[in-house]
Amino acid sequence: MRKLTLVAVLLMSSSLAFTQNDTAENGVKKACLNYIEGFYEGDEAKLKMSLQPSLNKFGFWKNKDTGNYQQVKHMSYDRALAYARNVLEKKQFAKPGDPKKVEILDIGNTIASAKVTANWGIDYMLLSKHGDRWMIEQVLWEGPLDK
Predict the structure, then answer these.
(1) SS3 of 100, please?
(2) Is the full-model pTM beyond 0.90?
(3) Dihedral of CA 45/90/146/97: which sign?
(4) What CA–CA distances, in Å, run from 79 to 75, 105, 128?
(5) Could you read off the pLDDT tens digit of each residue along the chain, which spans 147 residues?
(6) Cα(18)–Cα(129) distance, rounded to whole angstroms?
(7) What are phi and psi for residue 44, nearest 5 degrees?
(8) Within 10 A of 83 (CB to CB), how many other CB atoms are there?
(9) b or e along 103-126 (b: 16 or more beta carbons within 10 Å of the residue's beta carbon)?
(10) In the chain, which ranges are continuous DSSP H helix?
């Protein structure tokens, strides 16, 4: 009887851990997809759901003439929202079939890391959990994708 009780307790606790991890993965993936779609669609609401107001985003862009990478100006939360507005106003939406890939690298109790592949290149992200929502804190990116 003791063995049966122990097995039941172990099964329930592993099931609970799986559910919590699955929920965390869904939350991190949702934040990353909101990020990509926010820029692709010019959707400020999606960005606001995923980006911390203290966002720190910077990256490197390959110069077409020299082939060298150069650092691009820092993008703040406000600049990210302004970029989305510009996409919407100018109707410069992503093309059908543009990459929209999220790879979760690691998830802790309150922090996570992910890699996003989009039409502009790749982004490595650090996220934190606020209440029940995962939010993007930091982004380091490189573009364009080598095709």
Answers:
(1) coil
(2) no
(3) positive
(4) 6, 27, 21
(5) 666 554 444 445 444 444 555 799 999 999 999 999 999 999 999 999 999 999 999 999 999 899 999 999 899 999 999 999 999 999 999 999 999 999 999 999 999 999 999 999 999 999 999 999 999 999 999 998 775
(6) 18
(7) -60, -35
(8) 16
(9) ebeebeeeebbbebbbbbbbbbbe
(10) 2-41, 44-50, 77-90
Reduced to 3 states (helix: H, G, I; strand: E, B; else coil), residue 113 is strand
Task: Tell which residue, 52, 124, 116, 41, has the closest CA to residue 84.
Answer: 41
The CA-based angle 33-48-131, given to 5 degrees, is: 85
Rounded distance, CA 83 to CA 75, Å? 9
* Residue in the structure block whose two tokens are 């790749």: 122
Torsion angle, alpha carbons of 79, 75, 80, 46, to 10 = -150
